[in-house]
Write a structure and sequence with these properties.
Blueprint (H helix, E strand, L loop, with lengths): L2 E5 L4 H12 L3 E6 L14 E3 L5 H11 L3 E4 L6 H6 L1 H22 L3 E7 L22 H20 L2 E7 L1 E3 L17 H9 L5 E5 L11 E2 L1 E3 H16 L5 E5 L5 E2 H12 L4 E5 L8 E2 L4 H7 L8 H15 L5
Parallel strand pairs: 1-2, 1-4, 2-3, 4-5, 5-6, 6-11, 7-10, 8-13, 9-14
Antiparallel strand pairs: 9-12
Helix pairs in contact: 1-7, 2-4, 4-5, 6-8, 6-10, 8-10
The structure holds uridine-5'-diphosphate-4-deoxy-4-fluoro-alpha-D-galactose.
Uridine-5'-diphosphate-4-deoxy-4-fluoro-alpha-D-galactose binds next to α6 and β8.
Amino acid sequence: MTTVLVTGGAGYIGSHTCKLLARTGRLPVAFDDLSNGHADAVRWGPLEVGNIEDSRRLREVIAAWRPEAVIHFAGLIEVGRSVEDPAAFYRTNVTGSLALLEEMGAAGVRRIVFSSSASVYGVPPASPVSEDAPLDPVSPYGETKRAVEAMLDAFARAHGARHAALRYFNAAGADPEGELGERHDPETHLVPRALRAALGLESHIAIFGTDYPTPDGTAIRDYVHVSDLAAAHLAALDYLVAGGDPVTVNIGAGRGHSVRQVLDAVRRITGRPFAERPAPRRTGDPPELVAATGRAARLLGWTPRLSDLDSIVETAWAWHARHDAPEA
Ligand code: UFG
């Protein structure tokens, strides 16, 4: 059985990917400091508790498991917090990734799939945005993702290590079998926040910006189902194991939905009305962010299967109705 080290394996996308790795006959070893992840989401392989900035701990775990590859999810993700506390983001996302790459190199582990982000594009000049668009992040979070992409390129040139950097668009939805879902604290993402409003846990949902140059005035995003994202990591792993060259790929559904369209889908699917209130734009939010998905299809053979808006909201609703609902 081949072993894959999954940093951030107790987190939202990491845990869904561990489940799929196990289903395809691999052993996922989750490496997570549990600062945001959940130990009870690690069910398909061992949990090694540790922080990616801790080189000694990384060395120990890599030596113990001798992984064929690393899938590297661990990192801080809240764009707003990155503006307030950039040091934490550079430390975890950049220094942590450097420590990981160095320990991988020392142990001869040469394949890595990295969680990059559409935030590297900033406010893209065109939509859908292709991988060749200029990189111009507008937050420290996006800057850290760009920095790690550059680091991966440099390591590939210098040492022949091979990587797939996956630029996620908006991850959403939950495991269709109901075993895993999204649990962030604080929750900043649109779909879970709308579901919390539907459950009556919030008085309303704020719409950040109603004057964007879009058909209904609200921002457009490309929502991609977390199980499709997990499958993209498996496809990237297969690509690297087959000898593929280093690659950077968008992972999105290739279709955009406005904030209002998402809220309407949540009301329709849950059958529960909730209030919305216009609020100012969030700094750095682009009007529209939709992936050009040709490269992922061509190089990885990956296409989304569950990323229609209804499947995303239905699976997320099944999860949140069970885990967030107030006690009766
Ligand atoms: N939104 C609201 N109200 C809310 C929450 C969000 O109107 O309560 C809006 C946002 O302004 C945005 C859209 O809903 O237009 C989606 O917002 P999310 O916070 O769910 O996601 P983002 O697009 O801000 O961020 C996501 C990832 C980031 C990544 C980014 C790439 O969460 O990690 O995409 O741009 F960096």
